[in-house]
Amino acid sequence: MAKKKIIVGMSTLSEIRDKGGIYVDKTRFIDYLENNAGTSVPVFLRPRRFGKSLTASVLHSYYDISEKDQFEKNFKGTWIYDHRTPLASSYYVIHFDFSNVASDPAQMNRSFIISVAASISNFTDKYPEQSLAREELEPSLYKNATELLTKFLTKFSGNVGAGEYLYVIIDEYDHFANEILSKDKEAFKDITSTAEGHEGLIKQFYAQLKAYYRGNRNGGIDRFFITGVSSVSLDSVTSGFNIATNISSELDFGSMIGFTHDELSVVIDESVDFSLLPNNITKSQIIQIMEENFDGYSFNRYSNEKLFNSNLCLDYLRKMLSIKTIPDLNEISLNDNTSKLRGMLNLCEDYVREEIVRAMFNKRPIVTELPDKMNLNSTNYFDKSQIVSLLYHLGYLTIDTDTSREEGVTSFVIPNKVYEKLFLDYCRLSMGYSADAYKDLSSMYEESADITPLMEIITEQIETKLNPQSLGKFTEMALQLICDSIINNSRKRQLNSYIEFYTGKGFADVFVKNIYPNGHYFLLELKYLHKKDDSKSAVEGKLAEAREEIERYLEGTVLKEKVGNHPLDCYAIVFVGSECRLCQKIC
C-alpha cells in the first residue's frame, strides 16, 4: 500500500487530505469541546510546534457554513464523520491568526491592524453581504485593530438573520505578546494595560470581542476557540476578556494536541518505507530517538501517558525520508532560542532564578502549584510559581506525573533532550562560554578509548574562552557544561553526551554514548577546586568523593540497561583552576 506523505508547515485539513498527507484523527475532541468543556469560550494552550494551528483549521472546516459542501471530502473516515454534532456547518467562522503580528513595539499596532484586515478580507471572500466592503478594509483608515474589529462586528450583527451567529477562532493569540514580553517587559505592560484612560491595544481588542459575545448580551458571537502558548496575556487584560475558560489542563483534553505513543507508531507505519532506508535503521530506533528528544509532556498530574511534540516528530520523519538516513537533530527547528529563555528568566528576581536554574540543571523536580492568574500589570517580578508556570507553558518544563502523584504536590521537570539542550545553552551563555565545534575526539570512539585529548581540550577552552570574572565564579556545573559541549560538538559526531545522567542510583555528572557497535561508553565524575583551595588533601578528598559516587552508580539498573554489552570506562576527574590535576580510571 502506498505510504502517506508527511506535510510539515501546512496547517489546513483540506490541503493535507487533498495531497494525501498524514492526519492523526483527533476529531472526537470536537464533540468534547461542545459537550464537555463547560464553556463556549475555551482557551487551549500548548508549547510551540505542537499542532495548534491544525486543530484550529479542523474546527474552522467543521463549523463553517461555507464548507458544508466539502464536509464529506474533509471528514470522511474520521470519528466525527460518523458522530456529527447538531452544530456542524452552522456558523459563519472568522479565523484570526496572530503568528504574523510584528513583535517590535514600534511596528506592532500597524501589523496588528493588517493581520485583522487580512482575516476579515478572507471572511469577505465567503460572505460579502455579512462583511465589510473591500474599500473599508484599508488599514490606513484605522487607528488600531479594535476600530476595524468594531466596524466589522457592527456590520455583521446588523446583516445576519435570526439564529445566525459568528464562531471566532483566534490562533496563536499571544505569539507577538510573548515575543515582546521576552524583550521588553514595559512594552508588554503597555499593550495589555487595563488602566482607565490608558487601555492597551490588546485589552481594547478583547474587550470589544467580549462586548459582542451573546453569552453576555444579544451579540453576534456565539462561540470562540482560542489557541496560544501561555495565559499571561489574557490574565494581564483581566476584565477585558474574563469570559474565557482555560481548559488546557483538563484531563479530558490532555491529548487533543500532540501525539500519543500509539499515534506516533501509526504515523511511522503509514509514512515510512523502511525498504528505502539503510538496513540498520529500525522503527524501534526511530521511536527511541523521538522519545529522548520530542516526548515527555504531561499537562495534568493524573495523566497516564506522556505526549510527543507532533510537529517536531513529523519534521524529523520528513527529514529522514528526504536524506534517507538518521538526521542531525540540530537541523530540526524548534523556533526558539536561548535569548528568549534568558528574557523570560529575567522576569523573576535573582534568588528565584538561581533556585530554578539549579533545580533544572541538577534534574531535581521543582515543586509548586500553577497560579490561577499571571497578571504582569500588577507586579514588577514573577514569583516562583508564576515563572515556573511561564516556563511550563512555553515547553521548557512539564509536569512530572510520577513525583506529583507520589508526593501529592505538582512537580515540574525538563521534558526532553531538545529542551534540555536549550537550557544548557542558556547556562553556557550566562557564563560567557561558547564552544568551538569539531574538536577531534576520535581517540575516544576508536579502540584505544583514550580520553586524554578531552582533558586537554577542556583546559584549553577554560583558559581561552572564559574571562577572569567567569573563572572566579567557576563551578563543577560549569565544568560539566564545557565537557558536554565539547563532546556533543566534536568532529564526526560519533559521541553523545548526557549531563546529570540518571543511573538508577543517583545522577552521574557526564555519561557518554558511542555510536560505534563495539565502542566504549564513558561515565565521568567531575570535581573542581579553585586554585586558592589547592592542596594534596583537597585533591585526594575530591577523588574519594568521585570514587564513592561511581561505585554507587555502577549498581544502578538504568545505567546497566543503557550500557548493555558495550565496554564502560569510568573516570574520576579533578580540575584545579584550568588544570586537569587528576584523571583516574576507576573501572
UniProtKB/TrEMBL annotation:
Pfam families: AAA-ATPase_like, PDDEXK_9. InterPro entries: AAA-ATPase-like_dom, PDDEXK_9. Residues 8-238 form the AAA-ATPase-like domain. It comes from the Bacteria. Signal peptide: none annotated. PANTHER family: AAA-ATPASE-LIKE DOMAIN-CONTAINING PROTEIN (PTHR34825:SF2), CONSERVED PROTEIN, WITH A WEAK D-GALACTARATE DEHYDRATASE/ALTRONATE HYDROLASE DOMAIN (PTHR34825). This is PD-(D/E)XK nuclease superfamily protein. It comes from Succinivibrio dextrinosolvens.
